[in-house]
Specification:
alpha+beta; globular; about 110 residues; 5-stranded antiparallel beta sheet; about 30% helix; about 35% strand
């Protein structure tokens, strides 16, 4: 009888537990035909925290924009936990970089 009561109390708590979320970064260099390797950048307790940090990453790069460096958002997929933006050097366009930022549950690596 007590087992049933304990089970009914614990099951909702176990099912609602959220795993850690990892913020991943990769840099592509399209004109050099180089695709960057994914690397973990930070770990968060919740998906929401990871997504907020993903947006802050873009804002940080955007804040570094100047007359010679242009930052343009390519896409953001909040349901898919993905963001992509271009960093273009207006003086040397061949140095364009595409930054990819993604949030995934721990144990899952972007591909």
């Amino acid at each position: 009888m007590y087992w049933l009561l304990i089970t009914l109390i614990l099951i909702p708590q176990i099912g609602s537990a959220e795993c850690a979320w990892v913020l991943w970064l990769a840099k592509d260099h399209p004109y050099l035909h180089r695709i960057g390797e994914w690397s973990p950048n930070d770990v968060f307790d919740t998906k929401t925290e990871c997504m907020e940090e993903m947006k802050k990453t873009y804002e940080l790069f955007k804040a570094g924009e100047s007359k010679d460096i242009k930052i343009v958002m390519d896409s953001i997929h909040s349901k898919k936990n993905r963001m992509k933006f271009r960093i273009t050097n207006l003086i040397e366009p061949l140095k364009e970089t595409v930054m990819k930022v993604e949030c995934w549950p721990s144990g899952v690596k972007p591909n």
